[in-house]
Specification:
Blueprint lengths: L16 H15 L22 H12 L6 E2 H7 L6 H10 L11 E2 L12 H19 L1
Parallel strand pairs: 1-2
Length: 141
């Protein structure tokens, strides 16, 4: 359990609305997960998320279907995205994810239960999974 307090640099008057949404979402993710459901997702304007591709389909499926505190295998996510034989392509989509944490690629693990790789490092992936599991357990009480 973290003893660090949640602080975001002040100066909100200088922030655009999308940045304010992103800041509120990240604060909720790390400090108040129960609030996440009531917050709008920040706008995603990255070109990868605008073009019609399997990567886009996988990332939106992950965002929509794999909830806070859950994990899914690469193969399961391929199934959910409509191509059961594309587990390797799912791995490629995770590597291409332009906004990890917001699109939670850390929730995608190997079928064996091992965490697999993560662009932010495997220790970060393990921490994020542990954070979500702990927070989900707290919310259940």
């Amino acid at each position: 359990e973290s003893s660090a307090s949640c602080e975001v640099c002040e100066g909100a008057e200088e922030m655009t609305e999308p940045l304010k949404q992103c800041t509120a979402w990240l604060r909720a993710y790390f400090c108040e997960p129960a609030r996440m459901a009531s917050l709008p997702l920040p706008a995603f304007h990255h070109p990868l998320l605008q073009q019609d591709s399997f990567t886009r389909q996988v990332l939106w499926t992950l965002l929509r279907d794999v909830k806070f505190g859950e994990a899914v295998s690469y193969k399961q996510l391929a199934d959910l995205a409509g191509n059961s034989r594309a587990a390797r392509a799912v791995g490629g989509a995770m590597r291409s994810n332009p906004i990890p944490i917001l699109i939670p690629c850390h929730r995608v693990i190997c079928s064996s239960g091992q965490t697999g790789n993560y662009g932010g490092g495997n220790l970060m992936k393990e921490w994020l999974l542990s954070h979500e599991k702990l927070q989900k357990e707290k919310l259940a009480y």
